[in-house]
Design brief:
The chain is α+β, with helices and mostly antiparallel strands. The chain folds into 3 domains: 18-101, Nucleic acid-binding proteins (OB fold (Dihydrolipoamide Acetyltransferase, E2P)), CATH 2.40.50.140; 121-188, OB fold (Dihydrolipoamide Acetyltransferase, E2P); 196-307 and 314-325, OB fold (Dihydrolipoamide Acetyltransferase, E2P). It is built from 8 helices and 16 strands. The protein has helices at 10-13, 17-26, 103-119, 184-193, 275-278, 280-285, 287-303, 314-325, and strands at residues 36-45, 48-52, 59-62, 83-90, 99-101, 124-127, 130-131, 135-140, 143-148, 165-174, 179-183, 201-210, 213-218, 221-226, 247-256, 261-265. A 5-stranded antiparallel sheet has the order 3-2-1-4-5. The protein has a 5-stranded mixed barrel with strand order 12-13-14-16-15. It has a 3-stranded antiparallel sheet with strand order 6-10-11. The radius of gyration is 33 Å and the shape is elongated. 27% of the residues are buried. Mean pLDDT is 83; it is low at 1-13, 306-315, 317-322 and 324-334.
Length: 334
């Protein structure tokens, strides 16, 4: 008996190698710029690496796209056969090759992180790597940040800050405009505020005089002695009362940690109205005694109905302070 072989021709199957290749093309992954995909390092190159992401052709990542920070050699970031996430940067070129990026992923996640830090009102530390006419430059989570000169609290020349670590608070976080603006002054004020109390008498030095008041240095941070808080008597200008480098005793009447502001008063320390103009030494001699009366008054207000307050043009005061402390936005490097 002759056995019959079970042979089947291509015609019987109805599915050729060409059909199979076409089917693969039909179900091939579609990669678009902006996608984040897994990939495996296929080959290391002198100035980049080839990455297998499942496309027909190995994708390429140039060295400048390997990190948000400077990279001198691809081996600093990638190793052969390593698998990780990659950002598709561009469409396929004429050879069907995609360009990838790790830097872009780090960039997106860095902005997400600094937005979170800003929402938490966190204090961060960073090293000053350069200065320019407007202020100082730092890096936060790999992003370039700018500290305006008006928000640097130090008597050192700006150039001497290079290489120093500074505590910083966030002023502006704007990914769309690539603006990350920070404040050294606000961080110091917040830290100083933790050891200060409303009603406390402190000694300070006059560092600046404006038409609306005097800026007093108290332990390395600046507080505002508004013109309305100098004396119960009318004052035309703070220049008629103070000079730069005058040493004063002042009382803290408000601590605004959110805005990084300390409001001061000598008016509340006057034994008699006008003593700051007539007998400053007496005001300083009686400062603690008058401050205690002020604190008792505050306590009574907290326990009962607050007394009617003297109306002050707060809008004028706030506008004046904002003018003094406004970040120098034009100095921000993009």
């Amino acid at each position: 008996m002759v056995s019959q072989k079970n042979t089947v021709s291509n015609k019987d199957i109805g599915f050729t190698h060409e059909d199979f290749a076409a089917l693969l093309d039909q179900y091939d992954y579609h990669f678009s710029p902006g996608d984040i995909v897994p990939g495996t390092v296929f080959s290391m190159e002198p100035r980049g690496a080839l990455i297998d992401i499942g496309a027909k052709t190995a994708a390429y990542i140039p060295i400048q796209e390997m990190s948000i920070n400077r990279v001198d050699d691809p081996s600093e970031v990638l190793q052969p056969d390593e698998t990780r996430e990659f950002f598709i940067l561009t469409d396929e070129n004429e050879d069907g090759q995609l360009t990838l990026s790790i830097r872009r992923i780090e960039y997106l996640r860095a902005w997400e992180r600094v937005r979170q830090l800003q929402a938490e009102d966190a204090t961060v530390r960073s090293n000053v790597f350069a200065t320019n006419r407007g202020g100082a430059l730092v890096r936060i989570e790999g992003l370039r940040g700018f500290i305006p000169g008006s928000h640097i609290s130090t008597r050192q020349a700006k150039e001497d800050l290079v290489g120093q670590d500074l505590p910083l608070k966030f002023l502006e976080v704007d990914e769309d405009r690539n603006r990350l603006v920070l404040s050294h002054r606000r961080a110091l004020v917040e830290r100083k505020m933790n050891g200060l109390q409303v009603g406390e008498v402190v000694t300070g030095m006059v560092r600046g005089i404006k038409p609306y008041g005097a800026f007093i240095d108290i332990g390395g941070v600046s507080g505002l002695l508004h013109i309305s808080e100098i004396s119960h008597d009318h004052i035309d200008t703070p220049h008629s009362v103070f000079a730069v480098n005058d040493e004063l005793k002042v009382m803290i009447i408000d601590l605004d940690a959110e805005r990084g502001r300390i409001s001061l008063s000598t008016k509340q320390l006057e034994p008699e109205a006008g003593d700051m103009l007539k007998n400053r030494d007496l005001v300083f001699e009686k400062a603690e005694e008058m401050a205690e009366k002020y604190r008792q008054k505050l306590l009574q207000q907290q326990q009962g109905e607050p007394e009617e307050l003297v109306e002050v043009d707060l809008e004028e005061e706030i506008a004046a302070v904002e003018e003094e402390l406004e970040p120098v936005a034009s100095g921000v490097e993009e």
